[in-house]
Structures are given as C-alpha cells and as structure tokens.
Amino acid sequence: MSEHFDVHGGACLSGEVEVVGAKNSVLKLMAAALLAEGTTTITNCPEILDVPLMADVLRSVGCAVSIDGGTVVITTPAEPSYVASSAAMAKLRASVCVLGPLVGRLKRAVVALPGGDAIGSRPLDMHQNGLRKLGATSVIDHGCVVAEADGLHGAQIWLDFPSVGATENILMASVLAKGTTVIDNAAREPEIVDLCVMLQQMGAEIEGSGTSTLTVHGVDALRPTTHRVIGDRIVGATWAFAAAATRGDITVRGVNPHHLDLVLEKLRHAGAEITVVGEEAFRVVQHERPRAIDFVTLPYPGFATDLQPFAVALASIAEGTSMITENVYEARFRFIDEMVRLGADARTDGHHAVVRGVKRLSSAPVWASDIRAGAGLVIAGLCADGVTQLWDVFHIDRGYPYFVENLTRLGARVERVVEG
Ligand code: UD1
Fold this sequence. Notes:
globular, UDP-n-acetylglucosamine1-carboxyvinyl-transferase, Chain, 13 helices, 26 strands, four-stranded mixed β-sheet, alpha/beta, binds uridine-diphosphate-N-acetylglucosamine, 2 domains
C-alpha cells in the first residue's frame, strides 16, 4: 500500500491552528522515565508515529507503556533490562536517548544504533566521550553501543559542538552519578530546558538550564512525575512559513513565541506582519510577495536546521535572491533537487544554496526525503500551479500530527491518497 498527498496549488492559508507538544522533546522525556521506578505521566504529547515507536523501545527494556491520545503513561520496573534492541530502534534517531538513562540507572547498556532521518552523518562520538568521562566504557559492537561502568562519577565535559542528543544523554547519565558534572558548550534548545524541568521535578539537581554550561549535582535516586510537553516550535514555524509563502493569515496557538524570536524576525524582514498574542500564540500575516532574505542555520538560539527547507520554499517564490547556509547537516540540501522539479531556481555549492525567487512554481511529482523536507515541499506545492503529488509522506507522519486536517482547516486543498 502506498500513500501520497495531492497538494493543490494556489491556496492562501488563513485561520487558527493549535500546535501540541514537541516531537524532539517528548521522545527524550519518555526516555527520562527510565530513570525512576514507578509511573510517569507525560501530557500534551503529539499523536505522531515516533511516539508509539519510542514506546516499543521502552517496552523492550521492560516498561509498560500506554498511549491515550496526547497522554503517555510509562511504568518503569525496579530493574529494567539494559538491552534495548527493539526493531523500532532502527526507525528513529531519538531511540539513542535511552543510552544515558540506562547507563545512569543500571551502569550498563546495550543500545542498537539508531535510525532516523537521512539528513547527513550522525555520529555518536560526543555521546560516547561524555559517558567515558563519567567513568563508563563505551564501544560499538555488532551494531550496538555497549557501555559499562562500575559506578559513574561527576566530571568536567566539554562538547566539541552543542549537540542536542549528546547533551541529553550525558545529562540523563549524570543525574544519578556521584558528585558534580559540568557540561560545557551544552545545547540550549528549548527541548533541553523542557528535559531539565522534568528531571528537576523528578528530584535531579541541575543548574544553568537554558545556558551553555549545565551543572549537575548527582543524587541517589529519582522519583516518577507528571509533566506537560512544551509546544512544538518547529511545527509552529512550519505554519508561520506557510502563512508567509501563501500570503496568508495564520494564528498559531500552543507555542511560546520566544522560542521563535529569530524566525519571526526573519519573517518580518520578508515582509510579514507578526503579532505576538500572549505567551502561547502569535499571528503571521503576509500581504505582498515575500522579499528575499538570507538564512544561516546554527544551534539554538540560531536559525534551526530543521527549518531550512521552509526557508528554501519561501526563498523560491520571494522577490530577489536568497543565500541559505546549512551549518549543521551536510546532506540537508538534497531536497533542493525536488524543489527544482517544482520550478525553483536554486543551486547549491557545498553548504550554501543560492535561490533566485521566481514568480510561479509549477506542480510535479516530488519525494519527501525527511520530515522537514516533506513539509517544505508541501509549502512549495501550495504555491505552485496545478496539483503536486508528494510521495513518501510517512516521513511527514513521523513529525506532524493531523497535518492534512490542519491544512484543510486553514483553507488548503490537500488530499491523502492511499493506493494498492
Ligand atoms: C536533534 C533533533 C534534530 C535536529 C538536530 C539539530 C531530535 C530527535 N532530533 O538531532 O531534529 O535537526 O537536533 O538541531 O531531537 N554530532 C557529532 N557527534 C555526536 C553528535 C552529533 O558529530 O556525537 C554532529 C551531528 O553530525 C550534527 C551536529 O553534531 O552535524 C548536530 O547534531 P545533534 O545536535 O546531536 O542532533 P540530534 O540530537 O541528532
């Protein structure tokens, strides 16, 4: 059975859209539940494919997991297994986040190497080096990360790069280590702050959350908790770009606008009117053809690499020429070939893309190579003449709850077509 979307061009999106919890937060919060025996409840979870996949990973180490709409309940046994080998491991990147909690709690872990989006090389050297500094051995053996320690002790750790996943794994291993751990050049993404908040509710002692220096004073044990996931800023930004590209008017609810300060500023430069409506909502209105602007991807608070496909989609129909620089994942420009099928005047040179805005794109069959590339192609398809067929939409289902339904509510004509 194969599925694709028919995206009808020419829409001008308008209305309100509600965004739920962040994919890149909920999966790590689910892994954090391993750190405490008992029942942890996570609310405002997105109904996306990655959540049941992560639930399978947790079940493979002995947790009971139930999912009821946006609520995930995880019961962690007194002695979980240290071997995480579910087939689901290969399907999502975030599965590697069970490594830190398992090593922290059990002092050993065998974790199958993760899968996930094909957006470039995704090594685990910083994760492993961090665990080694805490006193564990860590090797890759038969497709698994194998880590073992007699006991974990606090350490000073400098990351080469503010890696989101490495910061999370080291953080989750260090909360139960003896003594104090300092993680320098730590990632500062809002999803890391969300994880810190949940760990603190569980009894962890963490200072500096949201800064590039995290100080963790190890404690003997953590307790389960109930936690609400922060709104998904990447999904929120998707709607913001969709409004700007289709000359629409969208109010996005459920996302902290401050998590998108730079993004909204960029859209203002492109000609959008932005209104922040309290702590959890903002409105994006675009009257004229967007102006070309440059984008440079960087770790938070820089412009997120996950938003780069939306920047390319906007640039492709903007007035003028945009330069887009990708600093995080070298293979992320692959999707530009699909944009070219839609008539974009874009070319890449190393980690730069030059996009000369055209007045109109034209529909064509295109393929999503990852979650965000897929959403970027939908935005472009909405601006193209005719009906764009988007294939491999399972990528989009991994990250966007009720995507077609939300688009339809905003006035777009997008149909999911199931064949075979
Ligand atoms: C997370 C997000 C992903 C986002 C990315 C960057 C999840 C599930 N995924 O991925 O959507 O695009 O952050 O914001 O939260 N690196 C190394 N060695 C390591 C670890 C990372 O070289 O040990 C490199 C990577 O190849 C990449 C860069 O560091 O070039 C950033 O990766 P990282 O921040 O770790 O991304 P993820 O946590 O995998």
